[in-house]
Each structure stands twice: as structure tokens, then as C-alpha cells.
Specification:
The protein contains 9 helices and 9 strands. The chain is α/β, with parallel strands linked by helices and about 325 residues long. It folds into 2 domains: about 180 residues, Rossmann fold, CATH 3.40.50.620; about 110 residues, 2-Layer Sandwich (GMP Synthetase, Chain A, domain 3), CATH 3.30.300.
Length: about 325
């Protein structure tokens, strides 16, 4: 009953706020997907859903997102934009600068789409932790979320945020109520793999991180389904700009380091590291180093809680 009331209130609020063409970025993640479904129910054909393929998504993600929206009966336009994102991020290593660049590029893509569809509104899947962690007023900036602190000041659209006061567990509850396929999907950062590739973001390093993430996600999910470990709230891999000497066969390798991260949480505001059994971590490590021979020769496991750390590394 409570969830149904929240859904009805959100749809009613959107109907009163949006009286002309609106555009929304749909990443396939739970926040943007819930916002898209609510907005679609509120304004119907006035909503234009756009998926930006930044080149920074997980393995097979673009195809999965397109299929999911098709099954929900919501038209989704896919914009191929990997080249412009990699170009803008070239040589950038500071995590805050990355987030701001990505936020600006997203807006520039939507300005271009705005000129096509004539949108006056920009709907976003912003949730409470996004604006809390992005700082403002008396709050310190923990990290600028690309849809809040990463937004440029000269946005020529009215921003509408139907989920702004909700936390992740509440959004997940709404997603289940709406029957959204991604309701149980683990969180994924808006800037994508750019903030899981520490240091410079290049297509080669992103591809290494993408493969490592795929291995971690696939294996931990399989082991959890087999009852060999608890399924964490979030689990992934990051690529560190730390090179060390290793060996493959009889060959010396100077490779980078992958860190595996898995945490238990309710809403992402705090988290505890998940105690994945060592034998599972060993198998994950072997698969990553075998798959990324010559690129990665060390795998480590992060046992830091939030706080003092954050869930993502950047």
C-alpha cells in the first residue's frame, strides 16, 4: 500500500511539473529506469528516452539495456558517443575532474538531442545519496555525482528529479512494485568504468577493467547461487595505476593491479566489506590474470568499510 502511494504521488508530481517535451538519460540502472517508467506513465509520448553509449559501460550492457526497454514498451534512442568521451578524458587523472567532464559531456549530448526533439525538461534519476555526497551548503563534497556536482551551470533545460528524496532501498522497492527487470541489479556508477579505472582513462585500460568486472560479477553471482557465499550488495573490480613485476611462464611482466571490491549495504550511505571465502577469491584472481596476461599480474581484495572508505575507489 505504501509503495503504491509513493508511485501515485510521483506520477502526479511529474504530471504537474512536466507540461512539454522532456528527455531522460536511461543507463539501465535502477535509478534512471525507475525515473523513466514513472515519467513515461506520467507524460507518455512527451518523454524521449536516450541511452548514451559512452564506451564506459560493462560487458554487454548496451544490448541488455536496449532489450529491457523494448520489453517494457518504452522507445529508447541509443547514441554512440564513446569517441567524444574518451577524447574529453584524455590525460585526465583527477577523479573529481573526471566526474565533471563526464557530467558536462552528458549534458552536451542531451543538448544535441534537445535540438532534435525540442525538449524543455531534463528528467534525472537523482536519489538522495547523490546530492548528499556531492556537497553544498554546509555539506562537504565526498564525490561529485555526475548528475549533480558534475553538471555544468549553463543547462538550458528545467531539471526534474522525481526520486530526489529517496534512498536506494526505497527505489529498489518501487522498482519491484513496478515489475522492472533491473530491480535487483547491483548499483553501477553514473560515470561508468571511468571511475573504476584509476589514473588515465584509455580504451585499452577500460577494456581491461571491463573484463575484470565481468569476471568478478559473473563468478561471485555463480558462487552465491550455488550457496558457496552470500551475494554482496555490490561487487566489482577496479584497475589501479600500480605496476609491479610479475611472471607469465618464463617471461617477465610489468603489469597493473586489479582490486576486487564487495560490500554489504542497505542504501549505500554506509557499507561493510563482504568476507568472500579465500578459495573463491583465489579462483577469481587466477581467471583475471589468465584473461589479462601481460596487462594485469596482481589481484588484491579490499577489506575497507564505508566509512572510512567509499564503496567505489573514485
Amino acid at each position: 500500500m505504501r509503495t503504491q502511494m509513493l508511485v501515485e504521488e510521483a506520477i502526479e508530481a511529474l504530471s504537474s511539473q512536466v507540461d512539454d517535451t522532456a528527455i531522460i538519460a536511461c543507463s539501465g540502472g535502477i535509478d534512471s529506469t525507475v525515473a523513466a517508467v514513472l515519467a513515461h506513465r506520467a507524460v507518455g509520448s512527451l518523454l524521449h528516452c536516450v541511452y548514451v553509449d559512452t564506451g564506459l559501460m560493462r560487458k554487454g550492457e548496451s544490448a541488455e539495456v536496449s532489450q529491457m526497454f523494448s520489453e517494457m514498451g518504452i522507445e529508447l534512442k541509443v547514441v554512440k558517443a564513446a569517441e567524444r568521451f574518451f577524447h574529453s578524458l584524455s590525460g585526465v587523472t583527477d577523479p573529481e575532474e573526471k566526474r565533471k567532464i563526464i557530467g558536462e559531456q552528458f549534458i552536451r549530448v542531451f543538448e544535441e538531442e534537445q535540438s532534435v526533439c525540442g525538449a524543455n525538461y531534463l528528467v534525472q534519476g537523482t536519489i538522495a545519496p547523490d546530492w548528499i555526497e556531492s556537497g553544498g551548503g554546509e555539506r562537504d563534497v565526498i564525490k561529485s555525482h555526475h548528475n549533480v556536482g558534475g553538471l555544468p551551470e549553463d543547462v538550458d533545460m528545467t531539471i526534474v528529479e522525481p526520486l530526489r528524496e529517496f534512498y536506494k532501498d526505497e527505489v529498489r522497492e518501487i522498482a519491484r512494485h513496478l515489475g522492472i527487470k533491473s530491480s535487483e541489479r547491483q548499483p553501477f556508477p553514473g560515470p561508468g568504468l571511468a571511475v573504476r579505472v584509476l589514473g588515465e582513462v584509455t580504451p585499452e585500460r577500460v577494456e581491461s577493467c571491463r573484463e575484470a568486472c565481468h569476471i568478478v560479477e559473473t563468478k561471485i553471482r555463480e558462487y552465491a547461487e550455488n550457496g558457496e557465499c552470500e551475494l554482496p550488495w555490490q561487487y566489482f573490480a577496479s584497475l589501479l595505476p600500480v605496476r609491479s613485476v610479475g611472471v607469465h611462464g618464463d617471461t617477465r611482466v610489468h603489469g597493473e593491479t586489479v582490486v576486487v571490491r564487495a560490500v554489504a549495504s542497505l542504501d549505500g550511505m554506509s557499507a561493510r566489506y563482504s568476507p568472500i571465502p579465500h578459495e573463491i577469491l583465489a579462483k577469481i584472481s587466477t581467471e583475471i590474470t589468465n584473461s589479462l596476461k601481460g596487462q594485469v599480474n596482481r589481484v588484491v581484495y579490499d577489506i575497507t568499510h564505508k566509512p572510512p572508505g567509499t564503496i567505489e575507489w573514485e
